[in-house]
Design brief:
Layout: E1 2-3, E2 22-24, E3 30-32, E4 40-46, H1 51-55, H2 57-67, E5 72-78, H3 83-92, E6 98-100, H4 102-111, E7 117-118, E8 120-124, E9 130-135, H5 145-153
Parallel strand pairs: 4-5, 5-6
Antiparallel strand pairs: 1-7, 2-3, 4-8, 8-9
Helix pairs in contact: 2-5
Length: about 160
């Protein structure tokens, strides 16, 4: 669990509505949270300097493979100031989901979601409401409990 100073007034909680925000991905393309309306979005706040963040990758990959057909999308909210380091980690670990670059992640963590701990995982519902949050290495979204949480929250898959 890594904490850092933040201009936050309040951490995100289940039930909070998240305002639309923009991110810039590793390729320099801009995306808005509203682009993903109607899907379940798991925001993964991570950095290569955060060991618990790196340890969660296998669980996230399993969740992505198992639940993307049920509407799950993952957005990596990366906080590495050196883009090349984060890009190399994503490439070496075959991480297929969208990644937000440092500057836009920093804007979100300080002005929209007030994230103060790494890793932080936030599951948003199709209308942008927070369904679950994990700060640090804690359930319901970190580690093996992630799969159980998604199984309970996401709509059933098609046989």
């Amino acid at each position: 669990l890594v904490s850092f100073p933040c201009a936050a007034e309040q951490e995100p909680h289940a039930g909070d509505q998240v305002a639309d925000f923009a991110i810039t991905d590793f390729a320099g393309n801009q995306h808005h949270l509203s682009d993903f309306a109607g899907q379940y979005v798991l925001l993964d706040f991570w950095a290569t300097w955060c060991q618990p963040c790196l340890h969660e990758v296998p669980d996230l990959k399993q969740a992505y493979e198992q639940f993307r057909s049920r509407g799950l999308l993952i957005i990596g909210m990366n906080s590495d100031k050196k883009l090349e380091k984060a890009q190399r980690f994503v490439q070496e670990n075959n991480i297929p989901w969208l990644q937000s670059s440092y500057i836009s992640t920093n804007q979100v963590t300080h002005h929209v979601l007030k994230v103060q701990w790494y890793p932080t995982l936030i599951l948003l519902g199709p209308q942008g409401k927070i369904l679950a949050v994990s700060f640090g290495e804690k359930p319901p979204l970190y580690g093996p409990p992630l799969l159980n949480t998604l199984e309970q929250i996401l709509p059933p898959g098609h046989p």
